[in-house]
Design a protein that fits this description.
Length: 503
């Protein structure tokens, strides 16, 4: 066990003061606060993300007959942004989207192209392809006037809206085609002050690398844009910003997020609580295994989704997860490891998309990184973390962990706190408060090996990693592949046009 500290250049990029900090659980509160931030911005808004869907409603169920939200602007994302810049002459909106999104969600290509070509000139949509082939831009950052920032795991896209109750077929939780969307658990943070300004610097750097030109806006932090729907959880707290960046021709891999995980796990005294979409990162599994082998090491509770959405992804990622869990259980001679998945009152599995790490009452980390190899050394990621170095911050971290467990158990944070105070064990909390039926946490079933799953797991085809010393091969990136593909399509179209025109 070692003491944890934030060390720029090792386990983070920068440490800066967050004038206000709040943790957001699930999409309902996130989208409401994000919308208020857009409405409050005076100069610019910049969002970098894995995907944007311009047809979803930000506030489901709150539109009038004309499709307007209670604030008087259109509820759907695309019309909202267009109406906003038309009403605010001095406001520019910059959206940086992963270029590979067209392959993952081809149905959103047309709305994206419409936004790119037909939106008002104050809306600037760009595509980020500056990655090694196969890597993706996975950061989820939104900044406003260099003064307010969101950083977490929630994408502004279809299927992300939900409430902590995660009710069965919630009438507001609909896909954009009107069909019920599955329950979805997610998290983010909202930050003001110098830490928000540093996140703005990071987002600006990402825009520059992707577009070969800087943001037009002068760097000028200091505005008060805090969203009215969110109460600050902490004030004047140091915030660490950690990154993963794939190798480029001019830099090696940046793996600050991985190092922050490793340092946090090594520092744990009593409990490690993790939420993640996956559990496939070899380095993290080894670090957990070392702590499990200690006779007086910490408990580890990991909350994952039961399955991925696609059968191929499920085989690729969760055969590896099952192998790692079997290894953990063999090492867990002291019965201190649990991996569980949540269900709602109708026993629908809740999809866990949140990326959270809480160690004792001494560390809270949230961001875009999953517990997989991609997030540790291949994709572009950003996490933020606060340390419990004061009684107030320690109380907040412990209260938040209890709130998350209570949400999954269908219980109350006070009950979680009472059982934990009596037993000192998160596992005892779960076993005491976990209902046998309905809402609760269930033991994660492990995947059986099969030919396709084993091949995908052995090759780690969907979960690659670059070594720290690697460089982007010959400067060839996903951007070049996309440009090449566009050129081929254009050339093919011209060729067919000429053939058709021949007599």
């Amino acid at each position: 066990m070692s003491e944890l500290s934030f060390r720029p250049g090792r386990n983070c990029w920068r440490v800066a003061d967050a004038r206000c900090f709040s943790f957001i659980i699930d999409g309902q509160d996130y989208f409401r606060a994000l919308r208020q931030a857009f409405l409050g911005a005076e100069r610019f808004a910049l969002m970098v993300g894995w995907d944007f869907d311009f047809e979803i409603e930000m506030l489901p169920g709150e539109s009038d007959d004309e499709g307007l939200a209670p604030d008087g602007f259109p509820n759907r994302v695309g019309p909202f942004l267009e109406a906003l810049v038309e009403a605010r002459e001095g406001l520019d909106i910059y959206l940086l989207k992963w270029s590979g999104g067209a392959l993952v969600a081809p149905g959103r290509v047309l709305p994206g192209a419409k936004m790119k070509l037909l939106a008002p000139g104050q809306i600037h949509l760009a595509f980020d392809g500056r990655h090694p082939i196969g890597a993706c831009h996975h950061q989820k950052i939104a900044v406003f006037d260099d003064s307010l920032a969101f950083c977490g795991g929630i994408d502004m896209t279809d299927g992300r809206w939900d409430r902590p109750a995660h009710r069965h077929e919630d009438p507001r939780r609909l896909s954009r085609d009107g069909t019920p969307a599955p329950p979805w658990h997610d998290a983010s943070a909202v930050i003001s002050g110098p830490a928000a300004a540093e996140l703005s610097r990071l987002a600006r750097e990402r825009w520059l690398r992707a577009n070969d030109e800087p943001l037009r806006e002068t760097f000028s932090p200091g505005a008060d844009l805090w969203p009215k729907s969110i109460s600050p959880d902490l004030s004047d707290v140091p915030l660490a910003i950690a990154r993963t960046e794939p190798p480029q021709s001019d830099q090696p891999t940046i793996a600050e997020i991985e190092q922050l995980y490793l340092d946090a796990i090594a520092s744990a005294k009593e409990h490690i609580y993790l939420e993640s979409q996956y559990f496939c990162a070899d380095s993290i599994a080894r670090a957990i295994a070392r702590r499990l082998s200690e006779p007086d090491g910490p408990e580890i509770v990991l909350v994952n989704p039961i399955a991925a959405y696609g059968a191929i992804e499920d085989q690729a990622m969760h055969i590896t997860r099952s192998r790692m869990v079997r290894a953990m259980r063999e090492l867990d001679r002291h019965d201190r490891f649990r991996i569980l998945y949540p269900m709602n009152e109708a026993e629908d599995p809740i999809y866990v998309h949140a990326k959270i790490c809480i160690v004792d009452d001494r560390l809270l980390r949230v961001g875009s990184s999953n517990l997989d190899r991609r997030s540790m050394g291949f994709d572009t990621e950003c996490d933020v973390a606060i340390a419990g170095d004061t009684p107030r911050s320690r109380d907040f971290i412990a209260t938040l962990r209890n709130r998350l467990l209570a949400e999954h158990l269908g219980s109350e944070p006070s009950k979680v706190a009472d059982v934990l105070a009596k037993t000192g064990s998160l596992i005892e909390v779960i076993e005491t408060l976990n209902p046998r039926e309905g809402r609760g946490l269930r033991e994660l079933p492990l995947r059986r090996e099969n030919l396709i799953g084993a091949l995908l797991a052995d090759t780690r085809f969907f979960d690659p990693r670059y070594r720290r010393s690697a460089r982007a091969r010959l400067g060839l990136t996903s951007r070049h592949v996309m440009l090449g593909a566009a050129a081929v399509v254009l050339a093919g179209g011209l060729f067919l046009r000429r053939r058709v025109r021949r007599p």
